[in-house]
Automatic annotation (TrEMBL):
It comes from the Bacteria. This is Sulfurtransferase TusA family protein. InterPro entries: TusA-like, TusA-like_sf. It holds the Pfam family TusA. Residues 7-31 form the UPF0033 domain. CDD domains: SirA_YedF_YeeD. Belongs to the sulfur carrier protein TusA family.
Length: 75
């Protein structure tokens, strides 16, 4: 999946992946995709809930060893 921007949130603990995601997605236009890489296991539930509440869409989620990867479309 082609992302407009990639955010490296690896090594950050809650709530920093959400804080950085919010800042990064605000720089994108509607329909553009932000790819997030995180290592905090809580990010899986946190990012899904945050995206839904903010009108964004989690397009894809996968785990690559210890790295959680998310593709979120700006709402």
């Amino acid at each position: 999946m082609e992302a407009t921007k990639v955010l490296d949130a690896k090594g950050l603990a809650c709530p920093m992946p959400i804080v950085k995601t919010k800042k990064a997605i605000n720089d994108l236009a509607s329909g553009e995709i932000l790819e997030i890489h995180a290592t905090d296991k809580g990010a899986k539930n946190d990012l899904a809930a945050w995206a839904k509440s903010g009108g964004h869409e989690v397009m894809k989620h996968e785990e690559d060893r210890d790295v959680l990867k998310f593709w979120i479309k700006q709402g």
